[in-house]
């Protein structure tokens, strides 16, 4: 077996040549990587240098630390992923990242979630991706790149034909950049998943949703779409559903934390009666109430046989709607995951879901509630299961990519790296 270069020693040498002290956390991660020579040689490795690590002492990565790290990684062929989330990288650090992306030919996954990269850094990274032909998954989540930064990524997507997954959630995108991204994605063939959560919108006209819907009518490659916190109401839901009657590729639609009401869900229910591609529908934290739950239940019980996961937590649903959802699962055998916590449970609703779990129709790991009994009465308790519980962070006690807490990784066609 060929012995690969010692990353830790190279890092110490790079720090010396740059006349800067080593970061002990970076040194520790590289030492651990050096121990897995066989894995490096056969599969490649992801360096996890996340600044929110609670298992080992952490000194968050700075721009200067990154310069030394990039100097080490530029010539490696076995580092395929780099996780730098929750550090203190700025636009100066983005210069080193951009240079690395231009010169590296093996990196598939880059996570820069919640650093301090702004518009200038976004421009540098986006321009580097004009020529990069290997990066498949980029997370910019939580970096306040703003509307102008979003425009740089829209321009990048016109040229880059390799990137498959792009996360621009919580990046303060504006109306202009959302429309530009939707326009670019209309003919795009490589992007399979995009996260556009929580933009800063200053209009109630839902222009961005209209353009996203127009994109979905034509795009045939997008599998996963996140539109959380888009202030979406009936007009936007109607435009999306019109598009999805024609779209044959989208499998995961995230509409959580919008302003969707029971009347809007009737439109979604009609879509589910005919749509044959959606597998995951996230409606958490809307206000669909009992009538909305009944509309969904009717579609699922009678017509739809493709949806595998439904999330309706925190939707002001009470006994009538919850029992209707449980009844739909008795006839629909495809729906395997359902998340309902945060609604209004009475004993009848608790009994209905308790019976689903007891009978084996609903597996305990496929829902976010667990029945228990007190004085002969059945109640439901919350358990930490969901579609993307660990989107922002992974607790130190959890398994890497915990399938129970992150069911979308199991079901979704576009998985995490």
From TrEMBL:
Protein name (record): LRC34 protein
Gene: Lrrc34
Keywords for the protein's UniProt record, in alphabetical order: Repeat
Coiled-coil residue spans: none
InterPro entries given in the database record: Leu-rich_rpt, LRR-containing_regulator, LRR_dom_sf
The organism of origin for this protein: Eudromia elegans
Pfam family, one: LRR_6
């Amino acid at each position: 077996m060929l012995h690969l270069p010692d990353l830790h020693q190279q890092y110490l040498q790079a720090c010396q040549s740059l006349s800067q002290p080593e970061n002990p956390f970076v040194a520790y991660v590289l030492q651990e990587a050096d121990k897995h020579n066989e894995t490096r040689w056969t599969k490649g490795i992801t360096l996890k240098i996340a600044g929110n690590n609670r298992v080992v002492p952490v000194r968050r990565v700075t721009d200067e630390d990154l310069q030394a790290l990039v100097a080490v990684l530029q010539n490696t062929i076995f580092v395929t992923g780099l996780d730098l989330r929750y550090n203190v990288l700025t636009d100066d650090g983005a210069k080193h990242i951009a240079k690395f992306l231009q010169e590296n030919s093996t990196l598939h996954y880059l996570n820069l979630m919640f650093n301090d990269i702004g518009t200038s850094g976004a421009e540098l990274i986006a321009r580097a991706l004009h020529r990069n032909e290997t990066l498949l998954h980029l997370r910019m989540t939580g970096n306040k790149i703003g509307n102008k930064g979003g425009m740089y990524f829209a321009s990048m997507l016109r040229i880059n034909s390799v990137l498959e997954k792009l996360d621009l959630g919580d990046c303060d995108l504006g109306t202009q950049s959302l429309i530009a991204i939707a326009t670019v994605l209309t003919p795009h063939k490589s992007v399979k998943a995009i996260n556009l959560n929580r933009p800063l919108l200053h209009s109630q006209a839902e222009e961005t949703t209209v353009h996203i819907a127009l994109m979905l009518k034509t795009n045939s490659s997008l599998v996963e779409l996140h539109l959380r916190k888009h202030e979406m109401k009936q007009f936007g839901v109607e435009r999306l559903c019109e598009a999805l009657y024609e779209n044959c590729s989208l499998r995961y639609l995230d509409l959580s934390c919008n302003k969707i009401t029971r009347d809007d869900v009737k439109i979604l229910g009609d879509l589910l009666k005919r749509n044959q591609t959606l597998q995951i529908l996230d409606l958490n934290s809307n206000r669909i109430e009992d009538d909305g739950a009944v509309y969904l239940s009717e579609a699922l019980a009678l017509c739809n046989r493709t949806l595998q996961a439904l999330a309706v937590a925190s939707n002001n649903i009470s006994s009538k709607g919850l029992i209707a959802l449980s009844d739909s699962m008795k006839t629909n055998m495809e729906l395997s995951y359902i998340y309902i916590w945060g609604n209004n449970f009475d004993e009848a609703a608790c009994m209905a879901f308790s019976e689903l779990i007891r009978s084996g129709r609903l597996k305990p790991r496929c829902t976010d509630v667990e029945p228990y009994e007190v004085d002969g009465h059945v109640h439901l308790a919350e358990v930490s299961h969901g579609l993307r519980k660990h989107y922002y962070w992974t607790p130190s006690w959890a398994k890497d990519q915990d399938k129970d807490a992150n069911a979308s990784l199991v079901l979704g066609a576009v998985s995490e790296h």
